[in-house]
Amino acid sequence: MDLSPIIDPGFWFDLTPVRMSPTFEAMLFVLFALLIIAGAVMRIYVRNRSLEKYVAQTILRFAKIASVGGVTGFVLLFFAFEEIQFFGSRFWMLVWLIGVAIAVGFVVKFMRETAPMLRAREQSRAEVNKYLPRRSR
């Protein structure tokens, strides 16, 4: 299997769309469908469980990426399938892949850095607030 065309920029930035193989089309269709289903399953999971606030936010962020990525992928697959001049080009799949990777990177950063910081801030506020006087009702 010769992978040298993948390295060539002319392969990716050719504006005249080329018909994909039926196997590749089916694989992309299944991938995008699974992304949409995974997004829905994650949203249902968060709704039906009592999770810690930041864990739920992280899962919902991944669900949003999966849903938006799946729908966007279906749109790109439609343009490629219909061989539409500019929007059916191969580089849109690269743009899609880079966008999803960047979004996942932001969620991972939130999960590793921001969420623990916010969790510690909430705990320190709760610790301070228990000693503050409250309004009597």
From TrEMBL:
It comes from the Bacteria. It comes from Candidatus Uhrbacteria bacterium GW2011_GWD2_52_7. The chain crosses the membrane at residues 26-46, 58-79, 91-111. Keywords: Membrane, Transmembrane, Transmembrane helix. This is Uncharacterized protein.
